[in-house]
Model the fold of this input.
Amino acid sequence: MGKLLNFDYLNLNQQNIISEYLEFRKKGGVVSFNGFKAKKYISNIDVQLHLLKGQIGSMFFRIICGRCSIDSSKSHYEELTEDEKKRFNPDVFSHQDIKEEDYFYLDNKRSPSTLHSIYKEVKPFFYWILSKLDKEADIDKEKFEKFRTVQKNTISFLDQFPTNESEYPIHVEIKHKVKSFLTREQMIIVRDLLLNHIRSHNPLRDSCAWQLSCSTGIRPEELVNLRIEYFHIDEQGFIKINEKGWGILNLPASASKQGRSPSHPLYKTLVSNDTVAILNRYLKNLYSKQEKSVPRGKGYLFRPDINEIHLPYKTNFMKPIIRKIKTKLHFLDLDQRKDFELKAARRSMNNLIMGPRVKLNKSELDKDILEIAANYQMRHKPRLSISKKHYTEMISEDEFYEVLEHTIGFPWSTKSLNNWEIQYGYKNEDENTISKPHLVNSAIEKDIEISENTLNKIVLELNSQLEKLTSRPKSMTVKEWTVERNRLKKEIQKYNA
Done:
């Protein structure tokens, strides 16, 4: 059993009202009140509603602590002393009894940015409560007066939150992430660092995720939603190359950001030839390890258990991986290294397509066409005027392919990249800017083969140990035997992930 949420320590009425709200949102219910309207659909809804349950439950918890004269800076019930647990009484608070001063229990030792985040999550909840009371207000005078009182108190409570950075205290330093925009060579360096990372349990998976992000602009939160069948694949379950030399990804709205960012309806999302190659190498490795009864060409592309094809990662599995290689990104300055994240791949791809250093051999492929092509590949929906949106022809398929061929269709090998950049006018023939510390592709391939062989040996040894524990040895208690078997199973799953 996992750690209990603060929600679990609330009274039944408080739990019911939160659960009712979450069910309303899960059904696609729209919160609309006093000119405010929340988004109808929530992406990754099960995960997000679980987080929302914890957020609202924690808000109630801190208000209850404050009203019970308990230090409201504590974030969880288990942090309370025995005396504080005895004094903790959920009945001192009701969602219809929110007061202006309750805000200051939440404010206790919390940063303005944290309070801002809390505000964005709880505002729809309280407006949903007010909209319910508003519907009942016309029944009789007593209900109307109750609604007016709750409304005034709720609005006064919400007004205490900082709603944007301009409302943060003057002494608070606002720290913005230092964004990185990588060159093509730097993208390859990061990919190869991931391929050779000895502390990674699955370097091929990690490097695939990075290269795919650079080539398609897939967002970190979308990466865990990717299924193999979203790609155009052959009968063997491998990604196909079309007649123009590209792979095709057709990301549905349901797997995209907030359910609103699918692939282009006609041109889809293009996957460069070299990225298809490393993806197929990853799939070959995946298929060779999964059980024979597990179908090919189906299920999540990246999954914690290779045999559970419908079980995705719950969170961004690349986050800890990227954190481990930050110190090796010597081409970035210190602040950029500190804030480096997977999303840098998406930003860098967009910059390569429509940034200031784009080179096109054909003058008719102007900046407008570059921007439109970038929006197609990035799956952006830019704000356009009526005339541009409804009365302007979209770019042709040939133009879309040509823009990507000249910008992100580069080879993922530093030696070949140098020739490609000369060919497409990004570099003169006498230039050679390949970073010396970077390993050439042949060495990378050799090292990764050694790495994979080492991993296979480790897994074989673990399987051998597990097989020896099929029956309990006399030297072990039942508990010791069970614990050791479970440990070995988890280790095997970790290396196979």
